[in-house]
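Two quick folds needed for the group meeting slides. Do the first one here.
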Amino acid sequence: MSRPTETVSWGHGVDDGPPVLSPGSRIGGRYEVGEVLGSGGFAVVYRARDRRSGGEVALKVLREDRVSRASLHRLMHEAEIARGLDHPNLVPILDFAATPEAAFIAMEVLDGGSLRERLADGPLAISEVERILAGLLRGLGALHAAGILHRDLKPGNVLFDAAGEARIGDLGLALDTTGEETRMTVDGSLLGTLEYLSPEQALGEEVDARSDLFAGGVLLYEMLTGRLPFEGRSSLGTLLSRFRSRLADPRSLRPEIPAWLAQVALRLLERERRHRYPSAAAVLRDVERRGVGRLASRR
């Protein structure tokens, strides 16, 4: 069975755990640490000032009590995967280092909050859903074009810049299909977040771009209805529900959802991947074509 990953983003509060660095301290010889933006079981995110450029960055710093060979590998993996990626719908990584003070990744500061934060208030406006979905599809398309599978797309990993543009972040579990990397496991368990796993990922089968699109379908369903498409009374029940339960049409939960958008969600959530969209670009074409001209293409 999969277990939730320890994802860190900012804009949604701070989890319990020891801070790594105190305000005013320096790391990597150039970053002056400021306020804590967010934290999780794996790392703490700080706002910091880059003394070389004078600009602000977000520092994702590995927690001292979680330093291990595996956690360092994951942080390095995220930095290496993101190297060379430059797209307006991806969170850019600016720097990575393992210093005597700590191991960290420097990222662009995004002050627009996270999708998890927005979903806390319930379903989103249809026009907002369309805009966010288009941004996610462009970001996924860029990753897939580079041979990278995200494998952990969920609300906490979708951040917004000041203009409200959606950015996909946290590539710690991403898979580079162009190399010799294989599916990563920890303690015999598949990595990923249970509620957003595709059926094939949950079964430990090989994943492809359509597995990320399934997770995108879960996000779309959640944005439209305010609830997850697959739920159970336990982790096992939630996992089994995607194999046993009949998926409710999102319009049965919210009648004002456009029929075409409901169909996009249902197709993304097909149990058999051969019935899903073949690519993020294919989904985006439908969204832009049916979105009544509200979406400007940013390819």
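Then this one, please, same format:
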Amino acid sequence: MTGEGIPDLLGMVVKYTQVYLKKKVMQRNTEFQCTVLEVKKITGVGTTIDVVLVNGKLEVGDTIVVAGFNGPIVTKIRALLTPQPMKEMRVKGEYIHHDVLYGAMGIKISAPELDYALAGGELFKADSEDQIDDLCDEISEQMLNFAEKYVNPKLPGVCVQASTLGSLEALLEFLKTSKIPVCSVNIGPIFKKDVMKALKSLVGEKVKKEYATLLAFDVDCDPEAKEFAEENGIKIFEANIIYHLFDMFTEYVAQCKAERKGAKSGAVYPCVLEIIDKNHIFHNC
């Protein structure tokens, strides 16, 4: 027994099962379950989200609710798209339009107002106005708890940027266990407005240079943002592995502390003197 041909045999079994037993395959768990993977802008289509529909079904015209940068986003599905056969969702090309799709499968959804959707969060389907309100409250509460758990904008800390909500949470959890404070978070590419948030660590009475940093995990950085950071003394650390970010930041913290220590050793501080005997005051002309 060499095992040769087993992958081909399994492939044929899966193929013919999908073709001839399609109507007999049923989902026992009918609870709707869908996750947002990526947010993309497609030429001629607009902003779309790539999702994995695990359970349930989606139809054109369904009302969906997703988490966004500025709060919950409520919108209606304009188009359900899938790639051509034997092609990946990420490969550019013409897509197949569908009126309805069932889980489990990957789907590209086109809908209005998706520009600020968060990748990595759940996608919910609403059937009534009351359900929309409940889902919006649930998403808002989740985002509030998330922010309160990891972020304190009132205290000095680093700024954190990640590609998805899941990767951001993983990075924040690691920073929390490493006792590194965080004052600001965001998802997606780094722009000038994101770098400006780190400026507050360079102003005021207590300047902490090591906190004027932005930890970027698996995201791109706009050239204008890099230029602005260099001009204002803000460090941007980029990496695709959390531990690499941690190593770069801890090394930079040690460097900043060494600079402060060296500056203190050469400083001359004022002092208060008391004259004990006025007869021992001399003045040479």
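Slide caption for protein two: The first strand starts at residue 33 and ends at 42.
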